[in-house]
């Protein structure tokens, strides 16, 4: 991730010092938006990717692009600003997060986060396509009025686990275009 900012230019920033204004060099992070603009204009650059258990952005970059230093591309294209809380956690990291948030895994498993009404059960079509279950968050009164088959109590653990699993679905730039992105990044930051 340290290489991400190497593509950004430095600008002089004036701050008030003891002897008057002092100019210090700082990284110009506003240039990031030029790359995002390019990426967002080219949907055909992308494909879907499922992050495997324990897989890190640098490992994905190495596997796909042959260079672990391109982890910034994986994060940038998915608009991930905080690698530790916006990227999927490994099981060990997730368990540690649960302990910090809720005291223990068993506490999180015993704590109701919200109630859901199942509006459509999961089903498999004749062609093998799985239509996922559809749910709606409801209040406790509505929940209690529903038949057992149409409701679900979601624990804090389940809620956090769903959130973590949803982060596994990311998009990546097709390796055929990574050179163009790097060249554009270089031009944008000169």
Kindly describe this structure.
By secondary structure, this protein is of the alpha+beta class. The chain has 2 domains: 104 residues, no CATH class; 76 residues, no CATH class. It is 37% helix and 26% strand. The protein is built from 8 helices and 9 strands. A 3-stranded antiparallel beta sheet has the order 7-4-8. Helix 2 packs across helix 3. The longest helix is centred in the middle third of the chain and has 12 residues. The mean pLDDT is 85.
Alpha-carbon distance between the termini?
Answer: 20 Å
Average pLDDT value?
85
Could you say which structural class the secondary elements and strand pairing correspond to?
alpha+beta
Radius of gyration: 23 Å
- The low-confidence runs, each spanning 5 or more residues with pLDDT under 50, are none
Strand order of the largest sheet: 7-4-8
Number of strands: 9
- Bulk shape: extended
Number of domains: 2
Beta-strand content estimate: 25-35%
Portion in helices: 25-40%
Report on the biggest sheet: 3 strands, antiparallel
Order of helices and strands: EEHEHHHHEEEEHEHEH
**Oligomeric status:** single chain
Number of helices: 8
């Amino acid at each position: 991730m340290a290489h991400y900012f190497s593509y950004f230019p430095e600008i002089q920033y004036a701050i008030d010092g003891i002897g008057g204004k002092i100019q210090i060099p700082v990284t110009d992070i506003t240039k990031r938006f030029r790359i995002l603009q390019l990426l967002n204009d080219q949907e055909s650059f992308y494909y879907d990717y499922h992050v495997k258990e324990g897989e890190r952005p640098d490992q994905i970059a190495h596997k796909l692009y042959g260079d672990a230093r391109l982890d910034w591309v994986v994060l940038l294209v998915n608009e991930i600003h905080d690698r530790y809380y916006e990227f999927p956690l490994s099981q060990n990291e997730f368990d540690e997060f649960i302990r910090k948030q809720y005291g223990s895994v068993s506490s999180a498993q015993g704590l109701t986060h919200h109630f859901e009404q199942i509006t459509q059960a999961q089903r498999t079509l004749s062609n093998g396509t799985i239509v996922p279950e559809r749910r709606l968050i409801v209040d406790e009164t509505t929940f209690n009025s529903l038949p057992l088959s149409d409701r679900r109590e979601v624990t804090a653990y389940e809620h956090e686990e769903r959130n973590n699993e949803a982060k596994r679905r990311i998009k990546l730039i097709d390796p055929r275009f990574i050179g163009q992105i790097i060249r554009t990044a270089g031009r944008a930051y000169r």
